[in-house]
Amino acid sequence: MFSRLGRIFSPATPPHGKEVEKNQTFPQSFISKGNSCAYRYDSRGPEIIEAQGFFGTISRDDTEFRVFGDNTVFASRTKKGAKAFLKTRTFMGKQNFQYLYEINILGKRSFSFVENYKRDQNALIEAMLASLPAELVASMPVSEARALAHSALIRDFNSVDEIQIEAPISTQRIKHIATTLV
Q: Biggest alpha carbon distance in the chain?
């Protein structure tokens, strides 16, 4: 759903001879089980989610930070954050419905950018930079890389109160609460 920091550092052409690894993770010390609720807009209707739940990302964006790899479900800790994310997307073609889901994440492993930023912003920035392939940040001064990472945290992650939740999330934990036409 969210996570665009890698694009800031991506070179115009991929590095030759090196496979850029997908689904980078942060140190386990940043993982929490203390959150109780999250909100997610999804283009899949309630009939699909009620049958399947959430099983992780379907995105093919290699620049996304996925704390739990392909088992990452992107959401927000607040309705306001989920709505803010929805406003960042451009929808083309036919009318597009987005469905807002409330997710009970009590006891589920999750990663909140806002919580970790408040706890230790420098450690979070360093973890983000360390998870990027070295060739993406090698040509810039460390202070510039940190400043870019900090800006991305504020603009792309904290502004929507992004939380990443470890999948699977069973249907019993998910409640459809609104439908929006975008």
A: 50
- Give the chain's radius of gyration (CA, Å): 17
* Distance in angstroms (rounded) separating the CA atoms of residues 96 and 3: 22
Spatial contact of 110 and 166, defined as CB atoms under 8 Å apart: yes
Nearest-angstrom CA–CA distance, 148 and 142: 10
Q: Which of 50, 55, 45, 52 lies closest to 99, judged by CA?
A: 45
Closest CA to 2 of 151, 117, 165, 135: 165
Record the tokens describing residue 125, joined without a space: 């920035």
Check pLDDT > 70 for residue 148: yes
Per-residue pLDDT at 133: 76
Q: Which residue has the tokens 């550092």?
A: 9
Helix (H, G, I), strand (E, B) or coil at 43: coil
User: Can you give the pTM of this predicted structure?
Assistant: 0.81
Give tens-digit pLDDT for 11-53: 333 333 333 333 345 665 578 888 899 999 998 999 999 999 9
- 3-state DSSP call for residue 111? strand
CA gap 140, 145 in Å, rounded: 7
What's the pLDDT band for 130 if we cut at 50, 70, 90?
A: confident
